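Q: I'm writing up a methods section and want to include an example of the input and output format. Could you take the sequence below and give the corresponding predicted structure tokens, formatted cleanly so I can copy it straight into the document?
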Amino acid sequence: MTIKEALMRTGPTTTMMGGEKAKPSTVKSKPALTRIKGKVIWYKFHRGYGFVAGDDDASYYLPHEVAERAGDHEPMRDDRCTFIAEQRGDGKSKVITWIKFD
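A: Here is the clean output for your methods example:
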């Protein structure tokens, strides 16, 4: 059996070359999305980003694309907001993916 054939097989376990048993793959589910309240620390349109302080004492990166989708005005310092954020691959940065200004 070729490696390609071994990879194409389905089932709870697959016999690989050399008789090894491959474990079934596990699919990691995304964490539940939680709405967080906070306020804008600063936002610079010409830079294309800003930061929001969450009521959970964490800082969140606010990209221009997300702020623009929020609507009617440019975010201003101390604007209250509700947002959803996700942890990025580096494990450090938290990026806002949705925001609504109160």
